[in-house]
Amino acid sequence: MVDEFPPPPPPLEISIDPKVEKEIRKKFKYDGPLQAQHVMMVDPNCIIKKPGAKDLLVTQGDIVHVIDTTNSKKYLCRNSFGKYGYVPAAFLLQMEGDIYDDVEYPDEVYDNDDPN
């Protein structure tokens, strides 16, 4: 039954100038891959305050690529303009098509169409 599900999509490759990449890694002290793990939307109902120096300026409804989720309060993200910064995790909503990160235990996934 697990074989019926397609594999998760590959991480979104982000092409970036090596000089810019070096600056990003230094500014955010990040040494992992600069690949989008998820695509998320900024909550249309959240109240956004003035961002800090390392925070990404976002507006309600923005779509961002999540690069790193190691900090449970703020995620390292990239916006559609190629800018990087932290976004509070509480501001972000999972996109409907981004479902694969929920399924850690495929044996526990059930079929709603099964009459039994």
TrEMBL record:
It comes from the Eukaryota. InterPro entries: FYB1/2-like, hSH3, SH3-like_dom_sf, SH3_domain. One of its GO terms (cellular component) is plasma membrane. The keyword Phosphoprotein applies. Keywords: Phosphoprotein, SH3 domain. Residues 19-97 form the SH3 domain. One of its GO terms (biological process) is T cell receptor signaling pathway. The keyword Phosphoprotein applies. This is SH3 domain-containing protein. It comes from Oryzias sinensis (Chinese medaka).
